[in-house]
Amino acid sequence: MDNFEPYELNEADIDKTINYLKMIDPDHATPEDAIAYLEYYRTVIHELGHQLSDKELSQLYDDFSAKRN
User: Fold this and answer.
1) How many other CB atoms are found less than 10 A from the CB of residue 5?
2) Using CA atoms, how far apart are residues 6 and 38, in angstroms rounded to an integer?
3) What's this model's pTM, rounded to 2 decimal places?
4) Is residue 25 within a helix (H) or strand (E), and if so which, with residue range?
5) Which candidate, 50, 47, 38, places its Cα nearest to that of 11?
6) Alpha helices in 1-53, H assignment, sequence order
7) DSSP character for 13?
8) Is residue 27 a contact partner of residue 14, using CB atoms and an 8 Å limit?
């Protein structure tokens, strides 16, 4: 983790999130809403990193990985 760089919002992620919001909540598919959504989930994931044990975090990743493959 020596090369860890914090995530920074970028236009590509905001655009992708706007497109996603258009599908699930068109009334709130603005750049401001996309930024708020991305910041919210960045906070949620950060907080989970402090609340869950290493084993629970590993299980969360394993669940994600299994669904992705």
Assistant:
1) 5
2) 14
3) 0.71
4) none
5) 38
6) 11-24, 31-51
7) H
8) no
Whole-angstrom CA distances from 43 to 14, 15, 33, 49, 67 are 16, 20, 15, 10, 23
Query: Could you tell me how far CA 50 lies from the centroid of its own chain?
Result: 16
The closest of 49, 25, 47, 51 to 37, measured between CA atoms, is 25
One digit per residue, the tens of pLDDT, for the chain of length 69 reads: 456 688 889 999 999 999 999 999 999 999 999 999 999 988 888 888 889 998 998 898 899 888 886
Find where tokens 């394993």 sit.
Answer: 62
Instruction: Kindly list the distances between the CA atom of residue 41 and the CA atoms of 2, 48, 63, 68, 69, in Å, as whole numbers in the listed order.
Output: 24, 10, 18, 19, 23
Q: Take residue 64 and report the two structure tokens written for it.
A: 């994600």
Place of tokens 């258009």: 22
